[in-house]
Specification:
four-stranded antiparallel sheet, single chain, about 0% helix, mainly beta
Length: about 120
Amino acid sequence: MSICLAAGALVISLGASEITLSWRHSVQKSLWEEVWQETPEGLVITEARIEGSGAGMDPPDGAKLVDGFWRWKPELPPLREVVMRRSGATADWRICVESRCRALDELLPADADPVVMKACG
């Protein structure tokens, strides 16, 4: 199993069934991270974490502060895909596989928008 990124006709495999998707909030500049895992039912978010709060980034009830991040498990059903938009007005998304992190523009052209994360098929 593997997670892929698709932008138009271009599809790349990340070679992993679990990735961390991260970005910085455009106003607060706080780091937001989500851990996604491919399952037979679809993509499942196993953890979300933020480095602070404010500007619509408040952690939900039950989140725990661990190592400087508010952490929780979102209650979302498995998803077929996750759509990421790239405005160019903020820093690009980052994709981490087994602790190796890269900006999305290292994987796909900077003008590729939208980018869809999905199970490779």
